Design the sequence.
């Protein structure tokens, strides 16, 4: 039994090392195609369909399942700077074409190409992310956190960061550079 646990531990450690090695940024943007469907980072039922919902901080962007979407202030334009361990804590809202939207400015909806060559939904030029600790519609546990070298905010329908604190925590354990923690 001990030998089996050692093998599993070795496999998990190798996966963690691979995730750390993948933490580099990419560039490239696209307004996408007309294909409406997509898959999302960790929302099995969600997709790259953008909607609005009410939160303690006002109207925010959510996916088709009502899960909150965030922007990362450390991103550069449409280029995501969240890869490797960051993308585990803050999964990107993946898209296979231009995301659909309801109640939003269609010209602000787009996509960008990530370092791993996957496509990520964007709004007003901001790559969109989920927060790993948001487990259901209405959760906004990532609002105002600082992790992986920048602040994380909900996105308003006008495409700007929602900087209010609502009922979510406003700080997190600090990290320096691109390290871990959330």
Sequence:
């Amino acid at each position: 039994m001990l030998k089996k646990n050692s093998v599993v531990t070795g496999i998990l450690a190798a996966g963690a090392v691979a995730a750390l090695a993948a933490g580099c940024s990419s560039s490239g943007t696209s307004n996408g195609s007309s294909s409406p469907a997509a898959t999302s980072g960790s929302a099995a039922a969600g997709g790259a369909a953008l909607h609005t919902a009410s939160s303690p901080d006002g109207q925010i962007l959510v996916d088709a399942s009502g899960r909150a979407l965030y922007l990362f202030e450390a991103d550069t334009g449409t280029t995501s700077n969240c890869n490797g361990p960051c993308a585990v804590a803050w999964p990107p809202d993946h898209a296979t074409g231009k995301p659909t939207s309801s109640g939003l400015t269609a010209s602000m909806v787009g996509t960008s190409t990530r370092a791993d060559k996957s496509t990520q939904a964007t709004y007003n030029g901001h790559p969109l992310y989920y927060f790993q600790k948001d487990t259901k519609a209405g959760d906004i546990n990532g609002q105002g956190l600082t992790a992986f070298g920048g602040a994380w905010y909900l996105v308003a329908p006008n495409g700007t960061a929602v900087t209010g604190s609502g009922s979510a925590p406003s700080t997190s354990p600090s990290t320096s550079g691109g390290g871990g923690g959330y």
